[in-house]
Amino acid sequence: MQTAKLLIVDDDADVLLAAKLLLKRHVGQVDIEKNPDKLPFLLGQTRYDAILLDMNFTRDVSSGKEGFDWLDRILDADPTTRVVLFTAYGDVEMAVRAIKAGASDFVLKPWENDKLVEVIKTAIEGKQAGSETSSSGQKGTSPPTVIAQSAAMRQILDTIERVAPTDANILLLGENGTGKDVLAREIHRLSNRRDKPFVCADLGALPDSLFESELFGHVKGAFTDARDDRAGRFEEANSGTIFLDEIGNVGLAQQARLLTVLQQRQVTRVGSNKPRSIDVRLVCATNADLNARVADRSFRQDLLYRVNTIELHIPPLRDRPDDIGPLAEHFLRIYRKQYNRAVGQVSPDLVKHLKQYHWPGNVRELQHAIERAVILARGPVLTPDDFFFGSSPASMQGTGGLPGGDTMQLEDVERRLIQQAMQKHGGNITDVARQLGLSRQALYRRMEKYGM
Ligand SMILES: Nc1ncnc2c1ncn2[C@@H]1O[C@H](COP(=O)(O)OP(=O)(O)OP(=O)(O)O)[C@@H](O)[C@H]1O
């Protein structure tokens, strides 16, 4: 530690002085700076092992935006620098976001001396050992693993193993976040087309006006923005697998176009009259009840019969509690590596708690909850406290109205509204997004932000 260099940036002179007095007993060189605008100059002068950075400079007290900008600039200059954040109590959400964005750790103000020393030492040792910096939001690089401990999921995987090598069309049904996308990829991986493309089209996010050109392609000049010829998703997937996600969201006119393509196994690019043959394996998914849609005539029966040669119902996570422990362990392995955290296990007590919660966002919600808990964990074993900040899983199930009080922040309100809408719509992302006036992507971003 005597060769190590640390920079502390905070616009409060008292904080700078106190932190320096404490840390210079442990670290060879401790520089302090009150003005973050000097950071580029300082980084050009010295290669710091670690930087202790305040997130809330006075210019931008509440959002931490300035802190995020500086974090980016430090990591751009040297991605191996360890950045530890100073955050105020109540800013834990921001700290989680910052760690996802590449910071190594955070310390709450006012700090405990031992804790601050320990975090800075760990950061410097990590830098000197040359280990990877915490990821900047990249997901694990290993191929996706399907966790299936429950009898229901084992049976689904068993069916998939048997039907994957055939070319049968498969329809995956289940609530949002139950793993339909993962299973579609698994079907492709186990099929004879595994070395060919796997192409996903999210039909739920596709405006009607783009439907045809996105799926079937277009030729130059077909419409104002068509500056070049472009292949659509079906052509891209040729000889491989096409995964049509949220097929229940497609309007009747588009259903007719889709049906023609599937029957004829040909696509015609928008603006052209030359059909092209395609050879694709079709996997579709939806959280909608397609039989009910057929009954109320909003979904074509002939299209349903075309896509559901094999129909697989993925149960919601609350109906397969045996998967919860293994999934939690699986995500823990991924995130402790990604965030370089020494968290070893999920405690049996935590698994018990997790099983009591009803997981409206299913596996996706569990995944985000574990990610957040890993970031925030203060010990080697994840416990219910890391998880829910002391609120019991049962309280998370409450459907009550918004709590009053003037201490509530805008983000709390937003999170609560999403939770309520999720409960109302049984976790159906499309309906929740519609109720809240958001796109599905915007909703996912917010759910990610709130660890839902
Ligand atoms: N059985 C599983 N094993 C491992 N990871 C899983 C499993 N099921 C889901 N996941 C993970 O949970 C997250 C959500 O899964 P996925 O995107 O497949 O759900 P989905 O049903 O397609 O959701 P949506 O309906 O919202 O598109 C993904 O990150 C996925 O990797």
TrEMBL record:
GO molecular function, a single term: sequence-specific DNA binding
Modified residues (4-aspartylphosphate): D54
Keyword presence, Nucleotide-binding: yes
Protein keywords: ATP-binding, Nucleotide-binding, Phosphoprotein, Transcription, Transcription regulation
Every Response regulatory domain range: 5-124
Annotated SUPFAM superfamilies: CheY-like, Homeodomain-like, P-loop containing nucleoside triphosphate hydrolases
Swiss-Prot/TrEMBL GO biological process terms: phosphorelay signal transduction system; regulation of DNA-templated transcription
SMART domains, per database record: AAA, REC
Ranges for domain Sigma-54 factor interaction: 146-375
Domain of life: Bacteria
One Pfam family it belongs to: Sigma54_activat
Protein name (record): Sigma-54-dependent Fis family transcriptional regulator
